[in-house]
Amino acid sequence: MKTMCPGQDTRYWRPDDIFTVVCFTCGNEMEFFKDDANRRCKKCGTIVQNPRLSRGCAQWCRHAKDCLGYDPSETSAGENDTERSIAGRIIDSIRREFGPDNEVLDEAIRAADRADAIMKSLPANPRVTVPAILLLMVDGNNAGGRGTAPAEENRFPVSKKILGASGADRNDIDEILGILRAYHSGIPADTPEYRAVAASRLNS
Questions:
Q1: Do 32 and 96 reside in the same domain of the chain?
Q2: pLDDT class for 73, splitting at 50, 70, 90?
Q3: Domain identity same for 61 and 88
Q4: Whether residue 130 is found in the same domain as residue 59
């Protein structure tokens, strides 16, 4: 049985992930899902592109072309930053924080490669799971472990900075930090997102 891509799983969608677009030819209102590349207007037959297409995990998933019909990694380098995935922005922020030749960046890139297979086998909310996988080893000693945890406000300073600039939803950020906190404290959380993040380290 084929596992559904987590980004397409409507359990993780928000109300505004289904929205209305007006056909530019006849003015007919059309319902779009966030992952529709385009739809044909039932009134006049015009093919209307989705102006809010969410590429999300497609920026790092090797199956993106099968999912979307094109490979977003092959788009021009001049695309607007707002169209780039949160995962891509996190990788860029890690590169800026640590430099291009650093083991923290290397680990994040390897983690991005592992995330695809992990998300296929352990379906979880990609908006939470993928950033947590990428940031898992970013804060080093400031992450805090059993017996050595710094004060809560001093934990994950780099991850908090990167997430704040990533465009991630506030609730997602809180959940991501909760997963990082659980992992580094050695107290597992009973969620599919935590299990996926923990599995990413088993395969490192």
A1: no
A2: low
A3: no
A4: no
pTM above 0.85, yes or no: no
146 and 176 both lie in a single domain: yes
Residues 92 and 68 in one domain: no
Buried b / exposed e over 61-88, threshold 16 CB at 10 Å, is beebeebeeeebeeeeeeeeeeebbbbb
Residue 186 burial by CB count (10 A; 0-12/13-18/19+): exposed, middle or buried? exposed
Calculate the CA 153 to chain-centre distance: 25
pLDDT at 166: 86
Instruction: Give yes or no for a contact between 39 and 18, defined as CB atoms under 8 angstroms apart.
Output: no
Residues 60 and 100 in one domain: no
Mean pLDDT of 171-198: 92
Residue with tokens 């799983």: 9
Residues 121 and 8: their CA atoms lie apart, in Å, by 15
